[in-house]
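Hi Y.,

Following your request, here is the sequence exactly as I used it, all 124 residues.
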Amino acid sequence: MLGLDTCLAEVMAIPGALDAMLVDHTSGMAVVASGADDTDTERSAAALTEALRATADGLARSSPGESVRIDDMLVTTDKGHHLFRPLQTAFEGPLVIYVRLDLELSNLALARYRLRDISGRLLA
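Below is the corresponding structure, written out as tokens. Let me know if you'd prefer a different format.
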């Protein structure tokens, strides 16, 4: 089982990773963060949680009667790729791994694969 700091270090080792954080999905608070120093981590964590929550709600409403569980979510902007990986953990509540990737230096398939591997070892 990975510790939270080791998990975040492995996320930051993904090629093209610019910053990353583990967010408590229930409270919207950052558990650990690494990367950009000029980012307001707490505001970012809350906003990222809201984006994930709104997406899950929208998907659930568009698929009535079906259970919708997000494995990962990708948002691409003009500034980078934003990859989310929600986790059902044995900790206090559900966590989300978030990583922002460089547009030119990242490989999305590799990043998704690495996040799946890292999250599996975090939950083990």
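The longest strand covers residues 17-24.

Thanks again,
Q.
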